[in-house]
Amino acid sequence: GVFSNEAGLGASGISAASADTKDYIRQGYISMTGVFFDTIVMCLLTGITLAVSGAFVDASNQTDCNLVVLTAFRSTFGSLGEAFVSICIGLFAFATIIAWAYQGEQAFLYLARPDHGIWYRFIYSFLCLLGAVCPLDIVWTLSDLCNGLMVVPNLVCVYLLSGELCREIR
């Protein structure tokens, strides 16, 4: 759920809060539609494609999940399916880098002075460059660790604010 749609992570709330709207409850419902389309529609279609193609059976010794999905879409939809998955992976990676840069900068600016935002951008750019040349398992481990560190305070706050949220929705 964290990599699929950031459910429970708390980071997507930063982007939703920047929306130009007076009705924050409606904005919350709009944000929830992204979770629905991503999890129910996209993940379901990917799972069905994996099941129909049988690629998951051959994936027992495969360490790269992207290759398993590419194989499944290639065997089900031909070269068009392979191109579709490749484009989606590229767009997902690009959108993730942009979104994490924005969300991280907003969190940093909340904790630091507004004129220090340029330092965050330099550090983030350097870390992106470093991540591009590091072994993939190190990048995923660091990403998992950072996401885990974000989940803990978010879940505590969600629990503490749940009563107030229920009152607002009613």
Helix content: over 70%
Q: What radius of gyration results from the CA coordinates? A: 19 Å
Profile the largest sheet: none
The ordered H/E elements are HHHHHHHH
Mean pLDDT: 83
Q: What low-confidence regions span 5 or more consecutive residues with pLDDT below 50?
A: none
Total helices: the number is 8
Beta-strand content: under 5%
**Helix-strand category:** mainly alpha
Number of strands: 0
Overall shape: it is globular
Distance between the termini: 27 Å
List keywords for this structure.
single chain; 170 residues; mainly alpha; 0% strand; globular
How would you sum up this structure, described in words?
The protein has 170 residues and is an all-alpha fold. 83% of the residues lie in helices and 0% in strands. It is built from eight helices and no strands. Helix 3 packs across helix 5, helix 5 runs antiparallel to helix 6 and helix 6 (79-111) packs antiparallel against helix 7. The two termini are 27 Å apart. The relative contact order is 0.09. The mean pLDDT is 83.
Short description:
By secondary structure, the chain is an all-alpha fold. It is built from 8 helices and no strands.
Draw up the topology in text.
Layout: H1 2-5, H2 12-17, H3 24-53, H4 55-58, H5 65-77, H6 79-111, H7 117-133, H8 136-169
Helix pairs in contact: 3-5, 5-6, 6-7
